[in-house]
Amino acid sequence: AIYQNTPEIAAEGLVQLEDTLGAVQLFYRDYEPLFTSGLKKGDTIKIRKPPVFIAQEFEGTVVHQEVKEQLVDLKLEKHLDVTVDVTSRDLTLNLRDFNEQIAMPSVRALATKCENYLLSKYVGIAQFAGTTGTRWNSLAAIQRLNSMMTHRKLAIGNRFALVDPFTAGDILSSGDMVRADAVGDGGTTLRDAVIGKKGGINWYTSEQLGVHTYGGATNGTIKGGKVQSALVAGATTMTLFDTTFSGSLKIGDLFTVAGSVDSRGVPNQYAVTTAVTAAGNAAIVQFYPALPAAVLANTIVTFVDSSPIGIGGDRRGLAYAIVAPEAPIGDALPAATINYRGIGIRVVFGYNTETKMNTVSFDCLVGGAVIQPELLFRLIGDPTLAV
Fold first, then answer.
1. 90-102: per-residue pLDDT in tens?
2. Whole-number Cα distances in Å, 133 to 24, 59, 312, 358, 386
3. 64 burial via Cβ count (<10 Å: 0-12, 13-18, 19+)
4. First-to-last CA distance in the chain?
5. Alpha helices by DSSP H, the chain
6. For 325, which DSSP code?
7. Are the CB atoms for 285 and 249 separated by under 8 Å?
8. Mean pLDDT by 10 residues, the chain (387 residues)
9. Are 2 and 95 within 8 A, CB to CB?
């Protein structure tokens, strides 16, 4: 019976999962995760945070930078599963046919769900580039993004941008994005997601990216309000108000604060971290990052309108792990688990007493987090492209 090949099915499933994950492979996957036995949804694993170094100008004495191992907690937030009823005939299939007819479609469904979850972490990114309502179809816009990445001191060799299919089509329609070296690459999903390299940035696309819809808070004139009381440097909470301030804010809504700029005069950028609805013409807003300098009362805060979801920067900014749950106890069921390079999958054959059907399940635990938000940008643009 096919269940005698469970370890082989799990191994092939892991290969398929890695191949099908597509563009999320751009992000950091810790290659030596500190796994423990008996993992379940809600558990936390440790991953190694990739180091970031700064190039210094040599002026007679070198500046030593220590390689300090930093461990980051990564919560396994999702337990994803595909369970399929299989007939007696299915159980007599050879390994190749079983993989093609049952295992591969199941694993592709898992990969899609994993990608959807991981890309939802964009709300943890506060830096943004682009303009709402403006399309990414010019070299000037692309070069502006590259300049912003340089300004924020991102490593030149690691820069990428990941956009939705409509924005990708808009970029490609400009004729500026062609990448001949992506042809003949074996046909993997990640390579198929390549748009091209332009302006020093490698561009990719994912169908799992859509539009971030702004929560809608407004003072009746602009999408924003005023700071009610003066704020000190380091603040991460403020009260917004205005005589007609109303509406809601969502996690991931972006904003700027009038007069809050960096040393080059570039506006500092912030993201809402907790959803809130205005009451009595005011709302208490929690945000990230902390204010670098004090802000006066009545300072204007302006929010970014709805925009396509795009992510760019350095892959080390977002980390993830896809882990195989523990095999059933006591060898009661044909099962196998496999973990390799930060990706894992479990395969279990069973029997459903309610439907009187044999089953096979493919499942995994997944966790992801923005661990270095300073390395990432949200790419905002024209949401009407998705209509």
1. 888 899 999 999 9
2. 26, 47, 18, 52, 12
3. exposed
4. 49
5. 6-20, 95-98, 104-119, 139-151, 165-173, 189-192
6. P
7. yes
8. 87 88 82 64 81 70 73 89 91 89 93 94 96 85 90 87 88 58 41 68 89 95 96 98 96 97 94 97 97 97 96 92 83 83 88 88 93 94 75
9. yes
From the number of C-beta atoms within 10 Å of its C-beta (0-12, 13-18, 19+), residue 49 rates as middle
Short-list 246, 237, 319, CA closest to 71: 319
Instruction: Quote the CA–CA distance of 365 and 126 in Å, as a whole number.
Output: 27
Length of the chain as a residue count = 387
pLDDT digits (tens, 9 = 90+) for 190-213: 445 667 777 788 888 888 898 999
Phi then psi dihedrals of residue 118, to 5 deg:
-65, -40
Residues 195, 204 contacting (CB under 8 angstroms): yes
Q: Tens digits of per-residue pLDDT, 122-139?
A: 999 999 999 998 888 878
Q: CA–CA separation, 66 vs 117, rounded Å?
A: 34
Structure-token pair, residue 223: 């999408």
Q: What pLDDT digit, counting tens, does each position of 209-242 carry?
A: 989 999 999 999 999 999 999 999 999 999 999 9
CA 113/CA 15 separation, integer angstroms: 17
Rounded Cα gap, residues 193 and 23, in angstroms: 6
Report the distance separating Cα 375 and Cα 150, nearest Å: 11
Q: Which amino acid is at 273?
A: T
Find all residues with CB under 8 Å of 274, minimum gap 6, and list them: 251, 285, 286
* Beta-bridge mates of residue 317: none
Sort 248 into a burial class: Cβ within 10 Å, 0-12 / 13-18 / 19+.
Answer: middle
CB 83 within 8 A of CB 102: no
Per the CB < 8 A criterion, the answer to whether 238 and 286 are in contact is: no
Q: Among residues 93, 15, 109, which one has the least CA distance to residue 349? A: 93
Number of Cβ atoms within 10 Å of the Cβ of 226: 18
Distance CA 378, CA 161 (A): 9
Q: Give 3-state DSSP helix, strand, coil % of the chain, rounded to 5.
A: 25, 35, 40
CA-CA distance, 110 to 362, in Å (whole number)? 8
